[in-house]
Amino acid sequence: MKVIKKKLDLKDTDCHTSEILKRLFSRYKYAPATALHFSTPLEILVATILSAQCTDERVNKITPWLFKKYHTARDYAQTPVKILEQEIRTAGFYHNKAKNIIGACHIIDKKYAGRVPDKMEELIQLPGVARKTANIVLGNAYGIVVGIAVDTHVRRLSNRLGFTKENIPEKIEKDLMNLIERKNWFNISNILIEHGRKVCKASKPGCESCFISDICPKIGIPVN
Ligand code: SF4
């Protein structure tokens, strides 16, 4: 694992960044690409929209039934919003999510002949799709990597580990893209998500037993 050109002002954490990344990549080399279940670009798009502020586990309970009923973008586009709302209710924020899925599918059906676009600039024009969702769809469905998906785990860990001082996902993504080799952009999200779920949890980071505790700057972690 090599860290490319450093552009961040990481001060005293700077010298440890390379070693932190090396250890993370070595420990989580088999981190799953995404925990969301899908088999088509449309399915990963819908699942990712549903996963906003909801666990992947919960989304995976909703989607088997949903994907059995809806096969094409037109299927979603022609569904009354009230019906879809009830079907995805347990994912939370179901008014917006249903509206966005139907709106996005309407555009995919009309403008892209039913095919989920494979370009960042086209994906982020769809309702409910920002760079995070677009990066997930591109990387998982098409193997196209043009950025780094910044979800809640990636945001939290990037700050704690001193990779960024930003809070806005787009700015964090930029810092990570400056710090990490392009060939590792897809994996770094999955690795940070895995470490965030297993060790560096939101409410209770497991610093005592963490394998990078000796070099982690632990930014924002209260000292006991
Ligand atoms: S040492 Fe603590 S803050 Fe740093 S990565 Fe490990 S759990 Fe997170």
What does this structure look like?
The structure is a single chain. This protein is an all-alpha fold. It folds into two domains: 11-30 and 148-209, Endonuclease Iii, domain 2 (Orthogonal Bundle); 41-132, Hypothetical protein, domain 2 (Endonuclease III, domain 1). It contains eleven helices and no strands. The protein has helices at residues 14-27, 41-50, 56-69, 73-77, 81-87, 94-111, 120-123, 131-142, 152-160, 169-179, 185-198. The longest helix is centred in the middle third of the chain and has 18 residues, at 94-111.
In short:
The protein contains 11 helices and no strands.
Indicate the topology.
Blueprint: H1 14-27, H2 41-50, H3 56-69, H4 73-77, H5 81-87, H6 94-111, H7 120-123, H8 131-142, H9 152-160, H10 169-179, H11 185-198
Helix pairs in contact: 2-8, 5-6, 9-11
The chain binds iron/sulfur cluster.
CATH topology of the largest domain: Endonuclease III, domain 1
**Termini separation (Å)?**
32 Å
User: How large is the share of residues in beta strands?
Assistant: under 5%
How much is the average pLDDT?
Answer: 92
Number of structural domains: 2
Report the CATH C-level class of the largest domain: Mainly Alpha
Short key terms for the protein model shown above:
mainly alpha; single chain; 2 domains; binds iron/sulfur cluster; Endonuclease Iii, domain 2; 224 residues; Endonuclease III, domain 1
